[in-house]
Amino acid sequence: MAVGSVPVIVGPTAVGKTAVALALAELLPLEVVSADSRQVYRRLDIGTAKATARERERVRHHGIDVVDPGTRYSAGRFARDATHWISEIRSRGKLPIVVGGTGLYVRALVDGLFVEPEMDAARRRRLTAFLDRLEAVDLVRWAGRLDPEFQGGGRQRATRAIEVALLTGRTLPHWQRHARQAGAITPWYVVLSAPRPVLHQRIERRSAEMVKRGLIEEVAAVLSDGHGRHAPGLDGVGIREAVEYLMGERSRESVAEAVALRTRQYAKRQETWFRNQVGPERLSLDATRAPAALARDIAAAWIRENRT
Prior knowledge:
This protein is of the alpha/beta class. 51% of the residues lie in helices and 9% in strands.
């Protein structure tokens, strides 16, 4: 294990990563770096399942409430910000722990960033204005035509793929392969998983609870502030479904079910990503166990690794 390695707790949404990190904070002097592409957006607390204000008072979190819903936040920016947060945490004598399910964010931090090619600012603004008027399905279709390696995603990912392809003449994967810098950390992976029926049950329960707690009202408040339905912060599972209801495209009664369905689909993609991207040197844990028990296993394994 390399000196200065960083624990990275990953797994699908609703598997219990936040609860485990909070329990681990009872055993180790740590601060959390959230690697979640939705939690960076302010005011969307329910829809992105952030740690509560009380939990964040108890354990300091970074990577939450970074930008407004109308601001784009990329994996590259996350890697730069997270590198700074990790340095600050260490300067306070604490252990930084990366926690999250956004694979691109984890990869940017662990494997390194690519040096973004220069893109004409005026052309980019004009292109962005045009793309903002397209429906998500059209953006994904164009992204797939321009980039044969495009693996799908929301508006933000599709827009990014189109911009890079049209304004540089090369696809995003090309630049990622041929213009990459070194990674910022050496990861010590902890992978949480649960049997699919258990995970689905948790997702359904959480989706219903989100609506009950005020998901729709939370999203309505963001829209009322002038943010369009295609704002980057509103392009996420659990948020889009509330937007659809507020735009008259679905019934209120269908929101929780739609959130659960799309969350299950997203969780399956996350599981596939982590299975393919995280190497064999990992601590794999069954997340059907209590968070405190999992935290004890993680703490013991971490201490053993750092004694060798």
